[in-house]
Amino acid sequence: MSTILPIDAARLWARLQAMAEIGATPDGGVDRPCLSPEDSRARALLARWARARGFGVSVDPIGNLFITRAGRAEGPAILTGSHMDSQPSGGRFDGIYGVLAGLEVLEALEDHGIETARPVELVAWTNEEGARYQPGCMGSMVYAGKRSLEFCVDVVDGHGIRFGDALASTLAALPDASPRDGAPRPLAYIEAHIEQGPVLEQAGVPIGIVSGIQGVRWFEITVLGTSAHAGTTPREFRRDALRTSIELMAALQEALNDPADRLRFTIGRVEVSPNVPNTIAGRVAFTVDLRHMDRGTLRHAGEWVHQICECAAGPCQISVEELFAADPCRFDPAIIDTIDRAAVSLGLERLALPSGAFHDALFLADIVPTAMIFIPCAGGVSHHPSESATPEHVADGCRVLAQAIIELAG
Amino acid sequence: MSTILPIDAARLWARLQAMAEIGATPDGGVDRPCLSPEDSRARALLARWARARGFGVSVDPIGNLFITRAGRAEGPAILTGSHMDSQPSGGRFDGIYGVLAGLEVLEALEDHGIETARPVELVAWTNEEGARYQPGCMGSMVYAGKRSLEFCVDVVDGHGIRFGDALASTLAALPDASPRDGAPRPLAYIEAHIEQGPVLEQAGVPIGIVSGIQGVRWFEITVLGTSAHAGTTPREFRRDALRTSIELMAALQEALNDPADRLRFTIGRVEVSPNVPNTIAGRVAFTVDLRHMDRGTLRHAGEWVHQICECAAGPCQISVEELFAADPCRFDPAIIDTIDRAAVSLGLERLALPSGAFHDALFLADIVPTAMIFIPCAGGVSHHPSESATPEHVADGCRVLAQAIIELAG
Questions:
Q1: Is the dihedral of CA B269, B272, B275, B280 positive or negative?
Q2: Within 10 A of A18 (CB to CB), how many other CB atoms are there?
Q3: Distance from CA of B375 to the nearest CA of A (A)
Q4: What class does CATH assign to A215-326?
Q5: Does residue A235 contact residue B265 with C-beta atoms inside 8 Å?
Q6: A268, A276 in Cβ contact below 8 A?
Q7: Do A231 and B355 touch (CB under 8 A)?
Q8: Per-residue pLDDT tens for B338-351?
């Protein structure tokens, strides 16, 4: 690395605070649903900041918003970004940090009159959270060809509003963004994000270099028994779905315990029916969330779930359904190296870690060399009003992003 | 026993069917809330049948309805009965069977011109189920001096209607029932009821002689952890309230396993927060329902619950609250013997068993020699539209009740 690009840490912090006003909740959090009036206001503010610096503003058919700083030549860009929508009781950093860190990189390049060989482009993906319209990551999935726009427009929210109609209103509210479609694929994609976990904070390390995104398998296990009176029913006549479920959950918990903690196992939801203290449960359903960076390990772990459920003793009927599965994704080694060099050149400690949560980068990685930068967040908390990150970490993450982009953009 | 009193099994069955029309639900069940218009109609029908045979009809301040067949002398009566209110999705036998079996005994005595030394009295207790007004068994508790009428009248139902106002309407709808208060305590109380459990049906025995009512202790165990992302949170930082609860529930289930099945242990309710597949649970609360016929065993079992929770390992905070406790009750040996002799004289097989459910007899047992007769019910099911009993068992239970009452009434 030849030079260090100075970023304006105060400007970045001020912009994070300004964005947090859009959809601000009384408890200090943010509620900015995808394609809502708040989303439109956030898009308009981003576009205003971009135009003030002469950057191009364009939008693709699913509403992904692009801010472009031209390079010496036209052609494929270096892409960075994240998303601006939030969970209903979300925080001030998830998603929006990656967008504003990207904008800061473009502005810092502009501030210092640095020309890059390739265009540098910022993107705010539509509907990453999946809170209003399911599934999440619609913008990046359509961009990467994983879903069709036609599928997305017909999805309906909890109030019966079609995604397509909400998208049309959002696009109409930003009339001077140029429409774009079929732009050349970028050369690389880097996304900056808060970690959403406690690893960096606990290690006291400011930069996480993300090795990939864990694969995940979700199972729902249903145990059917017979509901009966807790006082009057002797054991030999009981078909207690909760007793069987407790034994089964304990067995799964033990069998899928990875001493190295690479395999993550979580039972997060238990639904009991009728769920009354003096009635033996007739039906229990519980979920298993399995995550691992290795596809084979994840496959074996899923087979274990099936096998343990099949071998469970007792009078109840047990069934296993796989609700969801996503393969692990490993980020591009060359982009990872670029980020690593950027951190080294800035004298910042860094740690390699997988992402346990999904990001738009998961879908970009399929079509473009991709990697991510994590910064610590307080207590590892996200999707909560108390979500927070320090100004220092916010700035450090942006500096690493800037250096990596300069190297890639030439 | 000198003679066998023939009862009219067809009349008893017909009256059960007629009563089941009052509050009948489309699924074949009964919804007859305490002190509702349906309760008034049931009371009016019972009083009409009683008056047609010249029996006395009276009502005490909490609305317990008494039907009296005089004896050769005035003075304390032999009392039998049960309740006429039902659960919201209740059946055609729970409670009403004991009332109509009692009426059939009075009518059979009348049919055959049998004079008894002592009056024989039937009672329909107010609000046994506790479905509309809590707690249940208000009528028998006030009668036995366990609760004051003043406490009961101020209880409010889910629609804000005071018990006292509903009681006044119910009493007004039966103006020719004589008010009664402070009548002499009966000499004995016998209640006939469906078993609400599967023991008699499985054993193929028509008569259960109830030894008493199990004591019960209800605990709620609360486990506090920290809710966090299932994908991003390494094990060493997890405070998984559900993982700890699963281990704790499994330990309790194992430790309180009584090979003789005298101690009944049920976990019936589990509440998980936030109860989402990909979020580590921050809070879990679950209940333990313990029942046993012996007070000391029940006390020890409760101590075990506390001790196991106190000794539980892991990073979560665990607390135990006792929600409810009732001592076991043993019925009167002399009345039990009387019932047993009655069954023998009729050539009916019988089985001694405790009641796992509460009944008005629990409170009567405190002030009067008391016992109960159970008949089988299909699949042990009660509090459900499918609740049922055969005409033969209905008749057999009534025959045993009649013989026992004749012996006691002299």
A1: negative
A2: 13
A3: 13
A4: alpha beta
A5: no
A6: no
A7: yes
A8: 999 999 999 999 99
Residue B177 contacts residue B65 (beta carbons within 8 Å): yes
- Listed in order, the ranges of chain A carrying CATH 3.40.630.10 are 9-213+329-409
Cα–Cα dist A269/A275, whole Å: 14
Is residue B223 over pLDDT 90? yes
Determine the longest span between alpha carbons in chain A, in angstroms.
83
CA nearest to B231 within chain A:
A356
**Average pLDDT of A113-120?**
96
* Among candidate residues B151, B152, B127, the one with its CA nearest the CA of residue B140: B127
Inter-chain residue contact B197 with A287, CB threshold 8 Å? no
Q: What are the pLDDT digits (tens) for B280-331? A: 999 999 999 999 999 999 999 999 999 999 999 889 999 999 988 889 999 9
What is the C-alpha to C-alpha distance for residues A408 and A189, in angstroms, rounded to an integer? 10
Beta bridge partners of A229: A279
Task: Determine the distance in angstroms separating the CA of A350 from the nearest CA of chain B, rounded to an integer.
Answer: 17
Contact between B271 and B284 under an 8 Å Cβ cutoff? The reply is yes
Q: Which of B230, B275, B382 has the CB atom closest to A266's CB atom? A: B230
B161 CB contacts (<8 Å, ≥6 apart)?
none
ipTM of the complex, rounded to two decimals: 0.84
What would you measure as the largest C-alpha separation in chain B, in angstroms?
A: 83
In angstroms, the CA A120 to CA A361 distance is 17
User: How many distinct helices (H) and strands (E) make up chain B?
Assistant: 12, 17
CATH of domain B9-213+329-409: 3.40.630.10
Which part of chain A is CATH 3.30.70.360?
Answer: 215-326
Q: How far is B382 from chain A (nearest CA, A)?
A: 8
Q: Helix, strand or coil for residue A70?
A: coil
Q: How far apart are CA A367 and CA A353, in angstroms?
A: 22
Residue type, B267: I
Contacts of B289 in chain A (CB under 8 A): 230-231, 277-278
The two tokens of residue A278 are 């003096």
Angle at A263 between CA A260 and CA A265, to 5 degrees: 120
Classify residue B30 by its DSSP letter: B
Pick from B247, B261, B271: CB nearest A234: B261
User: pLDDT digits over A54-74, tens only?
Assistant: 999 999 999 999 999 999 998
Smallest CA–CA separation between A232 and chain B, in Å?
4
Question: Which pLDDT value is given to residue B184?
Answer: 86
Q: Structure pTM?
A: 0.84
Q: How far is CA B246 from the centre of its chain?
A: 32
The 10s digit of each residue's pLDDT in A360-379 is 999 999 999 999 999 999 99
Q: Are A201 and A378 in contact (CB under 8 A)?
A: yes
Indicate if the pLDDT at residue B1 is higher than 60. Answer: no
pLDDT (0 to 100) of residue A285: 97
